[in-house]
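Please fill in the sequence for the structure shown.

STRUCTURE ENCODING:
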């Protein structure tokens, strides 16, 4: 059967790798064991679905297919045309969009495509500051977004919520051509409707980057930007459980006139040929696989579990006395300000990793420490929910985090002492939790 042949081909690849390149094979195996045996609480991480992984490593990687279905610059695209159309239809169906482009190699390239095609160099953009929870591509000085354009940034109020008054004031006084909403470290729901009112008042495009919350949006657990923003970008690997890649979507504004036709037509040309060449067809197939799974009821259940586990963890940590930014969470993120514990984010990250708990250091509002040290940690529950952990398991994770953080003795911002007995106790408990909630579908790794 053809299916068997496909499986055999994948298996043959692993066997060849093992025989012909044992060093690399060993690295893959070690990474699988690392992931299996640790609690990944990195908010931008998740488990790529096994179907997506299969599509990624398929013969589709052999195909060159510049252009779009029905209009390629290469022959031999009959099947990949079907695959790309399927991915587009599934994206539109999942998000209720009128337009979807599944070719962007990442959300960063999707944002690059949008900004560089809709704006002129030097135009003003308004986005959330990286230090307040925004993304590099939303106007950071180290990214194209802050160097080719004139970036103005907004932040949060003292209670950790987006300062919509500030957004409105900055928009009114500086008249940006484009406003970006969406964040990498924001634990609450974003009011895309309010952003659109602000954008409309100054005649700006509104771009919503939902890379972190795409799954919650798809499941109806977060307000959708599709018919509120002019265009929406997302990556496909964080909360859609697909391959590392990006997408651009639009709803009722897809027919809006731009200097080069409708917004949808403009965006298609902006992806190819303006900013990308041939798409990664295997990645598009992997997106189709993930989007297909996201349309199933089980996906919404996982999304509910993501929010329940995040909520449980936030409450537990607050009960231990931690300063959880915004007083909790409304999505998958729990952001902890460790200032009063006098532990830097870096020390917390390292000590937790030593105990097999993986988080990332994160700056908090007004942080005096650099990003490489930071004063907080960001926790996300995508992966533990995918592994089937319940709210009570999430409370156990919070207990372990507290056990480590309350036991360690910081020695400055970079060093610390942690008793070996503490480390061993936590490691044992983490291994038990991981064994009870194995990573499914990746056993061949
Ligand atoms: N944007 C970074 C993060 O949120 O961790 C990487 O995806």
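FILLED IN BY: designer on duty
SEQUENCE:
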């Amino acid at each position: 059967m053809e299916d068997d042949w496909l499986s055999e081909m994948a298996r043959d690849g692993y066997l060849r790798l093992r025989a012909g390149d044992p060093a690399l094979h060993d690295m893959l195996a070690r990474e699988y064991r690392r992931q299996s045996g640790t609690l990944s609480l990195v908010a931008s991480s998740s488990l790529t679905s096994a179907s997506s992984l299969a599509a990624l490593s398929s013969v589709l990687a052999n195909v060159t297919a510049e252009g779009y279905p029905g209009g390629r610059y290469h022959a031999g695209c009959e099947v990949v045309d079907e695959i790309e159309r399927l991915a587009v239809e599934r994206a539109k169906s999942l998000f209720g969009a009128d337009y979807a482009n599944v070719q962007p190699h990442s959300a960063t390239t999707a944002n690059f495509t949008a900004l560089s095609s809709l704006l002129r160099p030097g135009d003003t953009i308004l986005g959330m500051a990286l230090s307040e929870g925004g993304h590099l591509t939303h106007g950071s000085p180290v990214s194209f977004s802050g160097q080719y354009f004139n970036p103005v940034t907004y932040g949060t109020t003292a209670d950790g919520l987006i300062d919509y008054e500030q957004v409105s004031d900055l928009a009114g006084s500086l008249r940006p051509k484009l406003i970006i909403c969406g964040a990498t470290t924001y634990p609450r729901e974003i009011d895309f409707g309010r952003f659109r009112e602000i954008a409309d008042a100054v005649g700006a495009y509104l771009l919503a980057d939902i890379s972190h919350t795409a799954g919650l949006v798809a499941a109806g657990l977060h307000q959708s930007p599709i018919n509120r923003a002019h265009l929406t970008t997302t990556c496909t690997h964080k909360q859609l459980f697909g391959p590392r890649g990006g997408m651009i979507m639009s709803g009722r504004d897809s027919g809006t006139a731009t200097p080069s036709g409708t917004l949808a037509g403009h965006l298609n040309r902006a992806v190819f040929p303006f900013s990308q060449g041939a798409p990664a067809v295997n990645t598009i197939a992997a997106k189709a696989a993930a989007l297909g799974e996201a349309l199933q009821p089980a996906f919404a259940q996982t999304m509910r579990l993501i929010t329940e586990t995040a909520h449980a963890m936030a409450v537990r940590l607050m009960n231990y006395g931690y300063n959880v930014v915004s007083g909790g969470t409304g999505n998958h993120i729990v952001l902890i300000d460790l200032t009063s514990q006098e532990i830097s984010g870096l020390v917390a990250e390292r000590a937790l990793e030593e105990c097999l708990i993986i988080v990332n250091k994160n700056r908090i509002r007004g942080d005096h420490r650099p990003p490489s040290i930071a004063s907080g940690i960001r926790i996300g529950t995508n992966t533990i929910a995918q592994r089937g952990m319940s709210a009570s398991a999430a409370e156990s994770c919070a207990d372990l985090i507290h056990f480590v953080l309350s036991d360690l003795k910081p020695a400055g911002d970079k060093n610390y002492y942690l008793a070996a007995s503490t480390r061993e106790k936590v490691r044992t408990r983490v291994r038990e939790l991981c064994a009870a909630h194995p990573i499914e579908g990746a056993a061949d790794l």
